[in-house]
Amino acid sequence: MAGVSGERKGKKDDNGIGTAIDFVLSNAKLVLGVGGAAMLGIATLAVKRMYDRAISAPTSPTKMDQSGKRSWEEPSWLGSSPRLLNCDMKSTVSRSLQTLPTSSHAFEPDCVRRVTGRGGPRKAELQHARMRLSLQERLWAFYRQCVAIPAGEQAAARRAALDICAELRVFLHSKLPDMPLREMYLSGSLYDDLQVVTADHAQLMVPLVLEKNLWSPVPGEDTIMNVPGFWLVRRENLEYFPRGSSYWDRCVVGGYLSPKSVLEVFEKLVAGSINWPAIGSVLDYIIRPVVPSETLTLEVQYETDRRLYVDFLPLIVMEDGVSLIAKPHRWAERHENLWRQSFRVAETARLRTLDQEDGGCRCLCLKVGKAICKLNPALTHLSSSQLTNALLLLSETEHDWTQGALADRFLGLLRALVGHLEAGRLPCALNPKVNLFCELTPQEVDELGYTLYCALSNPESLLRTA
């Protein structure tokens, strides 16, 4: 009740009607529960916004609302925590999106918009307006303070990853000289200058060599599972080349090369055969395998307060350039033999090319989004690939990607993600048949959609997660 009373200060007398509305919204959770309160809040949002705007007109052209609230904002309790959306609420959210602001100018303080239209602003009012950071300024401050990683920290993490790569290369060549592998290499956002917050993750790519006449790739959409973006690798010509003709026949399950079995082979070697404590003492690191892990991951403590996680990823590169990695489908028990197609290299190259063509802020917007998802527990299910593809799709409709448009493009990204989540589908920009939300549960889709929907009314709240 105290919060409700505080928000009414500075407004004209409304005969208690606005207070009654705020009281109902603030206490609906006690009567209707979380779901009912959310539905009631959305249903009354438009009415309350119109009513507040009508009664918020200042009695004097120079008087500003002391609470600093904007007339289009939703009730403060609406964005306090993520809530689930049922079907009726989803349609309401979709309609409500049409009324939300799409430009960063909507986030300017009310006093700035009022005084700039009068031509004769008071000096005190302008000084007060300048003290309030715009969304654009807050995004840049968030980038400098939370997103960007110092060059020295990145260099130290890369050196540690390179040391681990060298040790693994020597061990595998000496222990299993007949294992058909191409040269291993390091990859990931640490090497694309797209890592955020801390330099704590790298990928060690291990390309396998498969005989052309013994193995054939099968797209996931051409199988009974119908999963675009994943592939099967089928063993062929068994009548002429029986099992054992290929080194990787030991990893065949049900006639297909199993990424899980390939990972198990490397896990026995990397996690079970290598004396990491001895190697760590030579390198002055503490190295240990991460257990449990969906992929083979090494944790490397290379400084007292710094850790690096190195993912060991077997890789198949087909003749047409399609890259398949042994990163299992989230529902691996149903899709055990599926290899994941990796679009990361092509996505990153396309994003950088677009930025170079117009001096754009796409990569900057991506890094801000990644940091927000990393620091906000409610958004951890949004991956870098999903954010990248949402930006690539947004680039097809938005053309101003200058540095000065960062705030507008950031809001556009939030709005686009809400729309994709409401539809339950985010198509891959490089292959529209692939739904990048296919591994999310309906509950996770609802939680992400509602969290981002609430953030549209107060985007700066996402920047306070650090």
TrEMBL record:
It is found in: Mitochondrion outer membrane. One of its GO terms (molecular function) is nucleotide binding. InterPro entries: Mab-21_HhH/H2TH-like, MAB21L/cGLR, MID49/MID51, MID51-like_C. GO terms for biological process: mitochondrion organization; positive regulation of mitochondrial fission. Residues 153-347 form the Mitochondrial dynamics protein MID51-like C-terminal domain. Residues 57-76 are annotated as: Disordered. The keyword Acyltransferase does not apply. The keyword tRNA processing does not apply. Keywords: Membrane, Mitochondrion, Mitochondrion outer membrane, Nucleotide-binding, Phosphoprotein, Transmembrane, Transmembrane helix. Residues 361-448 form the Mab-21-like HhH/H2TH-like domain. It holds the Pfam family Mab-21_C. GO terms for cellular component: mitochondrial outer membrane. It comes from Scleropages formosus. It is a single-pass membrane protein. This is Mitochondrial elongation factor 1. PANTHER family: MITOCHONDRIAL DYNAMICS PROTEIN MID51, MITOCHONDRIAL DYNAMICS PROTEINS 49/51 FAMILY MEMBER. The chain crosses the membrane at residues 30-47.
